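Hi R.,

Here are the chain sequences for the assembly we discussed:
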Amino acid sequence: MVTLADVAARAGVSISAVSKVLSGDPSLRVTEPTRERIKAAARELNYRPNFAGRALKSARTQVLGIVVPDLTNALFTDLMDGVEDAAREAGYVVLLGRSDDPRPDAEVYQRLLGEGRVDGLIVQVVDGVAPDGLGALLENNPPVVLINSVAPGQVGSVLLDDVAGARVATEHLLDLGHRRLALVNGLPTSLTAERRRQGFREALADAGVPRRGLLETRLGYRPENGRAALEEILAAPRRPTGVVVANVNAAIGLLAAAREHGVRVPEDLSVVTVHDSWTAENTWPPLTAVSMRFYAMGRAAVDTLVARLDSGTVRDVVITDPPPQLTVRESTAPPSA
Amino acid sequence: MVTLADVAARAGVSISAVSKVLSGDPSLRVTEPTRERIKAAARELNYRPNFAGRALKSARTQVLGIVVPDLTNALFTDLMDGVEDAAREAGYVVLLGRSDDPRPDAEVYQRLLGEGRVDGLIVQVVDGVAPDGLGALLENNPPVVLINSVAPGQVGSVLLDDVAGARVATEHLLDLGHRRLALVNGLPTSLTAERRRQGFREALADAGVPRRGLLETRLGYRPENGRAALEEILAAPRRPTGVVVANVNAAIGLLAAAREHGVRVPEDLSVVTVHDSWTAENTWPPLTAVSMRFYAMGRAAVDTLVARLDSGTVRDVVITDPPPQLTVRESTAPPSA
DNA sequence: CATCGTTGCTCAAACGTTTGATCAGGTCAA
DNA sequence: TTGACCTGATCAAACGTTTGAGCAACGATG
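And here is the predicted structure of the full complex:
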């Protein structure tokens, strides 16, 4: 390993001179030849500052952690891309932790924040944990940003505009003439599910469609939850003609189950999903979907966290720009009856 | 931040006594009461060893890096799960880097290995880079393990049994009675594509089916590549009745394109894919697939890397147990003609 | 010629941990 | 009573970096 001392020896100067030149310390006065000699020596020896030494001295690691409960969730890929890109631009690298344990003393939090491995943490709370369950984790006001979740008060959070997303999806079905709608939603404790329900209801209210009698399932965001939701829909007394699915993976499961049950999409049932992804355009029929900006959410989470670290600013962000956008494919059509 | 000094002060002993007791140094003799006092003090203060201090002294970070070119690739989720699990068991955390830049001086390698942020690196080389292009990266024999790729000589690697996977898939079509087969494969420079071709050819040879005239596309592993491959298949003079697709994402794209072109699966065309995933069972028709052990590959990569770090042992591993296994769904059937 | 200010660097401490060397005090045998 | 040995700790250096304080040399000023 090449250290500052090696570079200093080769350039014939002191360690501190090297350190200051290489890190661009403006308080140091050096002659141009010396500066060049130092830079040349560093280049020739291929010097890289040692991370641990720097971290120890500066109490900063330039590492951001992200903790997610499930890598399979379709949002993860885009989210992670956004996090990676924004982190790189801000001079950080990303450490990934997976944990579905929301307890504040969960190993992953101790490991990452407690041992000082990361400067800050982006946490996607596992679906099905009430936000107030996080109270203890956030007690000491650690540098944490929550995504898709909010905690009262002192911690930053980043949300997508779930209300608008669900509203756009619902309005699409209403515009096609559907009146008997269903909402295939996330777990009862999920905050995003709550917000998507709100958008669904707002759209109905605006269109003057009475809400009563409309089916809502709260089974979760996974493919098998979508499958189960279809069973509920088929068992309903007044079968809906259109369904808003709150997650693309669940929609894919629902679509597969529909085929198996001989339910034709979109003739018998229109399906629109909140959250677009490459998988949505390769189903049969291709899924009409509302794009959610997970990439932007990842970026915003990093920006929020970095602002928090740099200036102590805590903020809650809702990604409203660009707004959720509908892509009409072939899983929706006017009701046939 | 709680340091060893804080714990030492509270327990009324020296810093080194605390360090040795907490890290279980057997060379230290302490009375039981002192030991208890130290442990109690650490507990009460919620002491966590500072990562940077430890890393600086020990020249070990207990961090493994993984660099992948594309998070969308269906293999990533399972792979990452395996890496995470094995890393945790071995006492490491995982740092994720994304890079499609195979040059050895790519920023990500400098950042992770050069600055000593990680003890070792798991690298999935971007598809389309010849293995020998890695020569320079591996020149100084860094602690790197390659997945799905091999480099001549000194570096460890982990491969799946692609030959067997493709062979099982091909044999399934042959068993159904198909004789005009096509292979929808990865890019010409992809090592896995080469190995899957080999399995395909071996199965044909064993069945005594002449190879000439059989179509192979080398367009890549992404959904749009699968779509393009279908076009090639439709344009072929003697249209195949069965197709082996080397990647599940490509298979999904191919399936979607088939629907759009009115090609019925499996009646007009049987499709089997190498690599099973939850997406394969939710297509229409559900995809017959050969499971590949990406989770096991992730675990093996970590094990190999840790062995390398602990004992300097370099090894090349091929995951053959459990072997690739066929799951017959509805995308394959005997040829109709 | 003494004083001062500036230039161009170097010195040394500090971050928190690990670890081999050391040491005070006691016990035991000769 | 002295030396040898053991017990139960402490001391101090080191890892590589950052950074404020310090300092020698020199030209300019009074």
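Chain B is about 40% helix and 15% strand. The two ends of chain B are 75 Å apart (CA to CA).

Let me know if anything looks off.

Best,
T.
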